[in-house]
Amino acid sequence: MYGDDCLKEIAKAISKATQRRTDLAARYGGDELIVILYNSSLRDTENFAKNLQKSIRSLAIRNDHSPISDQLTVTIGISNMIPAMMMI
Questions:
Q1: Residues 5, 11: Cα–Cα separation, whole Å
Q2: CATH architecture for the domain at 2-58
Q3: Residue-wise pLDDT tens digits, 13-63
Q4: DSSP calls for 2-39
């Protein structure tokens, strides 16, 4: 299956990118994946996302059925927060 093969290749790229013990990568939905980077600044998170997107682009996965691109593309969104401890 083409879609499953694509997800496997992308998962490999994510696995290579998440090397720290505290990083967590998981499949969140049908074709959604999530990466949680513990103790990362916004700049580090942005750089991680950019590097991951480059890694996936370099896989050059064919996408013959797309009117947009002949290669698979990904959209990456980021969020960054510092949890606060509330004293009650």
A1: 10
A2: 2-Layer Sandwich (3.30)
A3: 999 999 899 999 999 888 899 999 999 999 999 999 999 999 999 999 998
A4: HHHHHHHHHHHHHHHH--STT-EEEE-SSS-EEEE-TT
Residue 45 φ then ψ, to 5°: -65, -45
Sign of the CA dihedral with 18 first, then 15, 21, and 33 last: positive
Q: At what angle do helices 2-17 and 42-58 cross, to 10 degrees?
A: 140
Q: 48, 17 in Cβ contact below 8 A?
A: yes
Distance CA 53, CA 76 (A): 7
- List, in order, residues 6 or more apart from 50 with CB less than 8 Å away: none
pLDDT level of residue 77 (50, 70, 90 thresholds): very high
The per-residue pLDDT for 31 is 86
Task: Say what the pTM is.
Answer: 0.83
